[in-house]
Structures are given as C-alpha cells and as structure tokens.
Amino acid sequence: MKLDCNFEINNKIIRSETYLEQKQDDCSIVATVFPCEIISDFTSDCSLESMIDSSDLLLDKTSGRIYEERTKHCIKGNTQEYKVKLSSAKLVSENPPKPHDTVLLQFYLTNIPYSFKPFIHTHEQEGKEPEIYQTDFTAIKITGKPKIVIKPHSEGAISHILEVDEVTFADLENVIALIDSICFLISFASGCMCSMARIQVLHDTKIVHLEYISPENTKFKEGNKVIYREEDVIQFIESTYTDYMSSVNIYKLKKLISLGILAKHTPYIENKTLLICNFLEILRYNYALNVGHFTQTEDDFYWADRRNDKNVSFNAILKDFCQTNNLQRWIYLYTKIRNEIVHQGEVIGNDDEEKIKNYLDLHHFCDRVILTLLNWDRVSGYYIPINQKNRNTETKFTR
C-alpha cells in the first residue's frame, strides 16, 4: 500500500513516499520509507503519519524502529531507503461512516488448526443429474452478541476470517473486544496462539477502516489440543464465553492461557515446569486477592475468619481454591514440584521419564483449572488430557 507520509526522525519531519506491508510468514508490519531529502545522521526511533488529504485511507501517527538503511547512488543523486518495523498500523478514512451506519467487520486470525470448512453435499435423484450444493460457513452464536461467521483463509500465518455483518460502526470497539475473547478461547482449545492480525471495516463494499496488528507467537502452529473436534470448539466458545468474561480479570485468564501455550511449545522440561508453576503463582495470588477467604498484609495472605495468626501457605491457598470450586484434586506433589523448580532450579523425578510425567500431570491440572472456571462440565463437554498417552481419545470433563 502506497502512502504519502510525514517521517519524523531526530525531531525533524520529512515528507516521504511510504509503502506499507504486512509480511505473510509472521504478520509483522514493515514500512519501506523513501524520504525526499538526505538524512545524514539518524536514530532507530521514528514515527510515520499520513499527510492530510493524501489518500482515501490515512495512517494514524505510528511509532516504529528502523532496522535497515540503504543509500543508492544514481545520476540524479543519492536516494535513501529505510525499513521500519511497526507493532501496529491503523488507517482511517477522512470520511468515516456515521456511528449509526451499518458496516461489515472482518477479522483476519492466525494459527487456527481447525478447518471450519463448509461441507460439500451431493443429492442424487433417480433419472436426474446429481445436485451438488455447499452448506453455509460455520457460525458462532453467543447469546446477546451479533452472529459471527468463520471462514478459512490461507495467507501465510493467517488461517481464517471472522465476519460480523449488520452491526453499526459505533459497535466496532465492542466487537473487537468480543473477537479478542474468542481468540483466547480458541487458543486454549487448540494449544497454539490464535491472534488478530488485521481488522477491516467495509461500508457499502468500500474499506473505511483498516488495522494491521503484529501478533506474537505466530510460529506456534501445532500444539496439544485440549478440545479436539471442530463442532466441540464451536460449542466450547458459545457455552463458555459468559464464564470467561466473568473470570478473565479476576484470574488473569489471558495470562494463564498464554503461559499454558508457551509451556507446550517450550522444548526444555525445566522451562516447561517453570512456566506452568508461574501459572500456579498467578492463580494462587489472584484467587487469594479476590475470593474473599483471605486478607492481605504486605506480601502475605491470612485467613479472613482469623482461624489462626499464621500466614496462609501456597499449598493451602490452592487447596482452598479446589475445595471452593469442587475441583478434584490438588495434591502436595504439585507444591513440591513448584518449590523444587523455584528454589533449586530442578524438576522433581528420578529420571527424564518421571520428570516429564510430573510436568504433564501438573499441566493437566492447570488445564482442568481453566475448564472449571469456564464451567465446561455444565454442557458435558469433552477434552483431551495432556497427560494421556493416546492423544486421540476424548474424555468427558468432570471436576
């Protein structure tokens, strides 16, 4: 995409011809900048902003870092080219839709390992040519939310598009928040990070708003799935969304989900164990802080009912979490695993096989924590335990 931009560098603003691109392999955002005058000395920090009235879509002021610079010699003189990496880029129309105007929202998502393809059916009638027809694209229907259609889309790390039609332009930020939550639910279910890489708004078939986002961990393409079947994933999103929203801030669910995925993709058992023990630390702290069973004094927690004067241990708080949520079961071995990796940098186990087993059992417990907070058992939902040898056998989730 060609843009005419003000290129700010060294506290100086220079008019520049700019080409904006989102790389396919990792969805990173790169601006190739050709300033209209020679820059003799520069720092890596810079910013770009579209010149007023220069195009249909204008780039909001965006900070970036120069990672490559070239000077080319030609008959007319020297020209410079800068490669600038951006974490995001928002392009908006000078004449955006009115808040009440109806628009189509498109969200380009990365790394979804489920196909969600419409099925092709053949209907045969005697004496007639077979009739071939296609089912509709998969829909996600969450009570009180607009209908979401999910479509396959092959573009490097981008695997799918989510479309939300017939919503007002004023609802854009609310729908972005909704899709962000769906991304985290899909990420947990699939075992790899699903993220928004691009947001596109169309009004009367014309693009009026465009955002590029550089997501993290696009290389995490195949993880151990928690939810195996596509139809179960749709049910999982639809049935757990409300509980996710109730718990997301209290328990820092986004961090918990991200840590679980990082642990699955980290090659070293020590790092895996440390990450999943960090999961436990976040769970312990936020449960103790928010549930009402404890009071906090500096870094320590105490029983709110004053049953004794001692600060409550890591083990006791997580045991109380399990009792409160009817989750079976917390065992002291998990505390020993946590203590050993945090205090000694070691993984409990007599050999590599036992160390791996201890980690997988603990990770399985953490997956069950999230499934419990999301009340997946209320709909008799199925999942695949990470510590189960047969990775194709689903188990009904019970607490």
Counted by DSSP, the helix tally is 7
Low-confidence stretches: none
Which of globular, elongated, flat, extended, rod-shaped describes the shape? globular
Average pLDDT works out at 93
* Number of strand segments: 20
β-strand percent reads 25-35%
Structure, described:
By secondary structure, the chain is an alpha+beta fold. Helices cover 29% and strands 33% of the residues. The chain has 7 helices and 20 strands. It has an 8-stranded antiparallel beta sheet, with helices on one face. It has a 6-stranded antiparallel β-barrel with strand order 1-2-3-7-6-4. Strands 10-11 form a two-stranded antiparallel sheet. A hairpin with a 2-residue loop joins β6 and β7. The longest helix has 22 residues. The protein is globular, with a radius of gyration of 26 Å. It starts with a strand and ends with a strand. The model has no long low-confidence stretch (mean pLDDT 93).
In short:
With 399 residues, the chain is α+β, with helices and mostly antiparallel strands.
Properties at a glance:
20 strands; alpha+beta; 6-stranded antiparallel beta barrel; 399 residues; 7 helices; globular; 8-stranded antiparallel sheet
